[in-house]
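Re: weekly structure request thread

Next one in the queue (248 aa):
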Amino acid sequence: MKLYKSIIIAILMSILGAYLFWQLRQGFDTPKMAHWTQVKVDKWIDNIVSSSNYLSSIDSTEAYEIGKCAMIKINDSFSLDEIIALEKIHIDSQKIILAPIVLECMFPVGFQNIYTTISDKSQINIDANNFNGYWNPTVNDYRKIEVVLETAINTDKQDYIEKLTSENSKFYYRQYLFYLDKNNDSIAYINALCGLLKAPYDSSGVIVNKTMDWKNKFITVNDGGDCYWSIRINMSKDNYSNFLVNGY
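Done, posted below.
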């Protein structure tokens, strides 16, 4: 009988020890978020928010949701050792890592496949006489673009806006051009398409029927309504001009 009692006690002690060890790890380095305590989750999100110039400047509820999304992406993308390092790393160093992750959480899943930045100088005929070089946008700049774009769509009464909204505008194929004008103002030009077009012929007239090179060359379309639109945003002055929606 004493032997059975000793065995049962040993089993119970092993279970208790394993449970206590599991609880202990919740406050440290486990990447298994399904087992994280809420305190640890909130600590991670607070760390991400404070490490991002953009997140620390917006509404706390929105910042929390984007921070949570970023935390999940970090957990999915980094190894255990890298996650432990991230928990200890200096905030200024985290900004380099967080910028693209926060950007992914602001836009639709797979946005990298529908947004492109064009920097081919041969494509600058849109505003060639006012071109003074390029500039590189930050996460906060992308957010500002969305705010200005939402204002344009909701307040600029275009005759041909039927289906375009500030929400579904995020799902258009977008061609970005970030350039400096002659006043050295930072300009963001966006050309948007609801779908990709195919070129029926090549330059020699041979039938090819292949998708146009939209990632490197601006696509100009006649008609089509609000399936096609463009806008010029002056980031330095927080205003926009040339918000154009195609007719029919």
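The chain has two domains: 2-111, 115-245. The helical segments are 2-26, 38-51, 60-77, 80-88, 91-106, 139-155.
Next request, please.
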